[in-house]
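debug: dumping io for the single-chain case to check the tokenizer round-trip. Nothing else runs in this session.
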Amino acid sequence: MMRVNGNKLTEKSVEVNSLGQSTLERCDDLIRQYLRWKIENMRRSTLAQSCALVCTVAIPVILLLPWKYVNIVGAGVSALAAIATGLLTINGWRENFIRYGYIYHMLLIEKYLYKANATKDYPDNDPARAARNFAKRIEGLVTLDVTEWRTEMQRIDERSQV
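debug: decoded output
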């Protein structure tokens, strides 16, 4: 029989604590991963949008300047705006930022609901059930993200075949 702080623990209670702890660790890993992806995509989206906006605003000003090669410079800046917009669209940075942010925040919410036993899915009197439900919920969120990604890939594939 195991003893912790003078209390008897059954193997089952140790197993339940281990399941709950490993699920919390998995959740923390996912939270860090989705936060990193969210930030990366936000930065790229912001950079591409800012570049496109600045270039688009600069074009009329450039074209008014009395330079010999103003048309070439204007065309170059216009091309930069188009490239930034194209990269933003092709890579889906804005959409990814939103999707990853959603999953990130939902993982945080589930973690705190689980730790506080704040819903009927996480009962205080049945830690094994709470841990199993928590694992199902966080893996369900990851599955939701994968499903959305697959749907987006199918939509892109269908558009490219038209």
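debug: round-trip ok. Residues 11-64 form the longest helix (54 residues).
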